Structures are given as C-alpha cells and as structure tokens.
Amino acid sequence: MLLRLATWSRLRSPWILHVNTGACNSCDIEVLAALTPRFDVERFGILLKPSPRHADMLIVTGAVTRQAAERIKRVYEQTPEPKFVMAIGACACGGGVFQKCYGVLGGVDKVIPVDVYVPGCPPRPDAIIYGVIKLIEKVTKGGQRVQQLSRGL
Amino acid sequence: MTSVKIVIGPVHPALHEPERFVFKVDGEVVVDVEPRLGYVHRGIEKALSERTFVQGLYLIERICGICNVAHTLTAVQAIESVLDVEPPKRARYLRTIVHELNRIHSHLLILGVACELIGFDTLFMLIWRDREAVMDIVEMITGNRVMSAYNVIGGVRRNISDHEVSETKKALNTIAERVKEYKKVFMEDPTIRARFVDVGRLSRPKALALGAVGPTARGSGVKIDVRAEEPYAAFDEIAFNVIVYDEEDSWARLMVRWDETLESIRIVEECLDKMPTGPIRGRVPMVAPQNSEGFSVTEAPRGELIHHIYVKEGDDKPLRYRVRTPTYANIPSVCEMLKGGYVADIPAALVSIDPCFSCTDRVALVDARTGEKISIDIYTLARRYKK
Amino acid sequence: MAKECNNLVEAFKRGLKEGFLGYEYDAKKRVLKLFVEKGALSKLFRLINEICGGEHHVTTITGADLGGEEIELTYFSWLLPQRLRVVIKTRVPKRDSRVQSLVGMAPALILYEREVYEMLGVTFEGHPKLEKLFLPEDWPEGVYPLRRG
Fold first, then answer.
1. Taking the domains of chain C in order of start, what are their residue ranges?
2. Nearest alpha-carbon partner for B107 in B133, B127, B137, B129
3. pLDDT tens, B316-330?
4. How many CB pairs under 8 A join B and C?
5. C54–B205: do the CB atoms touch at under 8 Å?
C-alpha cells in the first residue's frame, strides 16, 4: 500500500528526459510542442529535465543508430530507479521507415526495456500526452513494474 | 590558465560518447572544432537505390522532420526531371504555398528554441503558441501537422477550397502581426542582444569560401537565395525580397529569419490570390523513359538543398540518389564561427544556424593542455554559462 | 546569356586544353555542364575562381558508382556574378581511384571529399584530414557502402 502511494506521488509529477537516438526530429518537435501552451503538458506536473539523474521517465525518439545505441544504454543505466521508458514514434517502436537501413539497429526495445509504445509518424502531441497518462495508469494499477519495485525495496 | 572542469556524473573515459562536436578549449576559449556527424547516419542514400521512386519519397520525407516539405518538393522535382514530367501550374502554386508555410513554422521553431536556450522561456512559449496557428493551417490544407506527404510526383495530393483559402489568409494576418512584435523584441531586448550580438562571427569572405547557405550565409552579407537565383515551383511568377543582413553574427542570422517569415507570409498571400485553376496532378510513368540524370535545388528553411538522381532506362528505382542538406553545407562555417570564440557562446552560435539535429545533442570539451574530456549537452551548457 | 556562356567555355577550353572533354548548356535552366579529365579539375577550379573574382559558391560533390570500371564525380557550383549553375563531371578509374584534393582552392569541399572517400573509396590526395565522416569508427576498412561489387 505504502509502495503504491510512493510510486503514485512520484509519478504525479514525472520528470522526463528526452533522448533522440537518430530521429528525423519530427517526433522531437511534437514532444516539445506538448510542453507549449496549446497542449500544456506541464499542467500534469510533467517537466522536461536535461539530466538522467533527475528523470523518472525516458522518452526516446528515433530508430536507434549504431552510434546512439551505446549512449541510450548508458543514459538508461544512469537513470535511477524507479524508471520507465516510452518509445515515441514508429522508429522508436520498431525502426519505422528506416528498418533494414545499414545505419540502423531498429526499435528502442532492441537496446533497453520499453514500458509504453506511442506509434505515429510522428504522433501528435495529444497522443504523446495520452501515452504518458497510460504509463502512469499502468504503473499505479499495480502492474508488473510495481512488483519489480517492491523487490528493489 | 585554468582548465575547464565540469563534471556531469561519472563519465567513463573509455566509453565512446557520440557528441555532435568536439571542442578543444584553453580555459574559456575554443581553440579548435571538430564535427562528428555519424550520430544520425541511417544509410538513406543506399536505401533509396533499393526502393521505387514512390517508396523512396516516404524515406526522403523523413530525412528531416522539420523541413520535410522541402525534401519532398526537391525530390519530386528531381524525379520529374528524369521522368519527363511537368507538373500542372496550379500544383506549382500549391507547392509554393506549403513550401513557404513549412519555412514559417521552421523559422518560428528555431527562433523560439533560441529564446528557450538563453533562458527566455516566456518568449519561447509565446512563439510556439503562435506557431501552432501555422500547424493548424498546414493540417487544414495537407491533412497532417508535420508529415504531410503533400508533394507527389506529378503534382500535389490535395486541392484547396475557397473556405481554406480565406481561413489561411485570416490566420496569416494574425501571425504577421505577432511576428512583427517578436521581431521588435529581438531588435531591442538587451538580454537577447547580449547573448547573440557579436557571437559566432562569420565574415562574408569566409561564409562564401566555406559554402555557407541559407540564413547562415545571408546573415553574413552573402546574397544567395535559390528561389531568386534558380526559381522553381511558382517562384518565377512571385515577387519577394531576398533578406540579407551584414552584421555577420548570430543575431543577424536570427534576424534574417524574422524578416523571411514576413516575406513568406506575403508569398503565400500572393500565391493564394494568383492561384490558377486547373488540375493539381498529372500522369506519371512508372519507369524511367531513358538513361538520364537530373537534379533539383531548392531553398529549404535552413538553406540550399540539393537532390541529385541518376536513372537507367526501364528502371523503377534510382541508380544513384544523393542528398546534400543545408545543415551539412553549414558545418565548416559553424566550425569557423566557433574557433577563437568563448565556450559560453557555443550554444548561441549553434542555434543561430538552425542545426538539423536534436537540441539535446551533446558536445565534448577537451582541455587543450591536459587532454581531459567532458561531455555536456547544449542545453546545460547554455544554462551554466550565463554572461 | 548564351554569349557569356560561350565566352566561359572558350576560356575553359583554352585553359584546360586536352583536359577539356566537352560541355552541354541548358539555356532554359541556365545550367552549364562541363566534362573534364580528373587531372584538369584543379586548373578548372582555379580558372573559375579567377573568372568569378572569388564569388564562387561551391555546392557539393556527388560520387557515383554507375556499375562500370569508373566512379563518376559530379561537382556542383554556383557562380554569383554570372548567375550560372555549373555542373562539372569527371571520371576516376576504380583500380586507381586517386584524385587531387581541391580543398586549398575551395575550402567548402573539406567534408564532401571525406564523404566520397568513405562511401566510394576515392582518395583525395592532399586533403588535410581524409578520415571517415558519417560511418562509425568500427566500420571495416576497405568496405565502401556505395560501391557496387
């Protein structure tokens, strides 16, 4: 019970680190648009932070290029538990149009575990916010990740 | 001479950190700059020779999400030149409208981001709020906010109704008024001037010799704009000004974009007024009618963009497809701008060329004496070094 | 414009002699295509710089393996005073794919030469830093992604 409350309060205002692993930037600008007055994701307490050390959530865009793979792995390791990962856009979900290009590994889940996939090319800011809400719901409804967290305690 | 020591968590020296640029620094001064461009390398040129012309368009559109319209326009023009296709006149006007709307959104984007980078959050929010009005117009005309797939080989995909024309004009009127206000802020606000004036100096001879393009070149007095020099789409019939500033600094490059945004609004209005009637799309062969080669040059928001294509008779795929983006062309100029400058000025200089890579990208600072390396993202660098 | 173009072509013919292989002029698009021997490139660029008074804007290089024994290099330029698009074509044999670097005369080429080198294996002799540009450091030596077999 206490654990669920702690998780919920942390996720009431999740802090997000946005990482681009080789994206064309269209997902990135829709993530940024989600912060701006029209969509205003800050009303949910969501804040974009520049460092993995402060992040609860990693938002990853892009089809992971070979050079980006190491970086996203390390960023994931530097992010403290409990941490969650959202793959934004078709490329992050599974390589998108860049599947089978020699420079590309594929979706983000080839490198780190993903909790929520937001498809789209790019997904609208509304869809991105919906994805964040879904993630919060998933965790607070006592999903698998909450059990993982209890093991950590 | 003290060395730069910024610790951003434990950075293991053995692990390869894919930074955008590596700066050799001596204290606060940048001694040398080396670009690292592999981070976003996806192998697109090779992939395009394995896809049909139409399949290729989907890939080309995603070379850069921000100026995707410029890429598809340049692509269809290059492909049309080798398939012997001439798009109808109305299509050329529609292409110009969406092309300029793309420029407006892209300029507002980077101008807002420039504010955000130097801590001027309110202005960033205001500019991006007004940018949403442009995204609305684009969505209304093309069916989508960002990836519109509007340009097709032979024409455009969607027509525009009279209602859409009047809505667009109304929205553009409001946007123009706001842009004029923001431009005034950029000309007068002391914080903005302090962070951008005299930063990232690029002399005219250097800009020309290093092949700078777009606002990066025009902010240094180089008067080149593909729309005026090699008119495409409907630009041979539309009057507009090529914007040039002579200050040769980051401020000038940003000011060029404010003025260009106003010019683009005028261009769209003129196109809407002069729009010819007729079809929006013509018939297109599936395969190349003969061995040939073609290219198309356009003025993308960041500058001169070129697509170069070779085809073999009877093929439905290109033999070779080459894309040279404007940011790529500007890299040597960026290196030149930053050499001899201050570490504190790196973010303001980078943002002024409107680089087509993510703003969360990292740069590396290497102490010129000790070889010690620090990796830092541009956002944090901007915040740490307030003048 | 056609007359001015003729003057240019005559100047190139005179300057390059046997290095000048031919030309095509598209009056409608104002594009001048020049075909030259690879050894004549540096002379040609020098001539262009003189004729333009330095107002020569270099666009890019395309390297292409069209399936034969040679790699075709296409240099794109814009001549400001003449308002002319110039497209320079030359061929480099695959078995001896060396060509002189033009970075000294046209600094804008510094990254494009590196790209053609890593993608097609053309060596630009005299380039200050002929290394990989886009490909990762661990990319195998001698493997050129845009070469066809």
1. 2-125
2. B127
3. 999 999 999 999 999
4. 80
5. yes
